[in-house]
Amino acid sequence: MRKSFAAVMTTLAVALAPILISAPAHADTPDCVTKSEFRAVKKGWSMKRVHNRFDVAGRLVFQSGTYKSREYRPCRNPRYSYISVDYNRGRVYSKSAYFN
Known about the structure:
Elements: H1 2-21, H2 35-40, H3 47-54, E1 59-64, E2 67-72, E3 82-88, E4 91-98
Antiparallel strand pairs: 1-2, 2-3, 3-4
């Protein structure tokens, strides 16, 4: 009885693991980007991964060929702060921010 229960539970855990691991993150701030969210983004990340991390797509401010520059609204003091991420071929090329 215990062996069959353990086997069922193991099978269930293996079956549900991809669903639980790949669940999308939900930020506390769906319309702006926090400093910790910005710091988490690394060079080479895809634009989709960045947008999932920020929970906002930002706005396109420049595009030339495969190069895109997007700005995102910072949560802290958005009037005097900024967040910018540059992408080349859909991957983070550089990022910059000023938090006032």
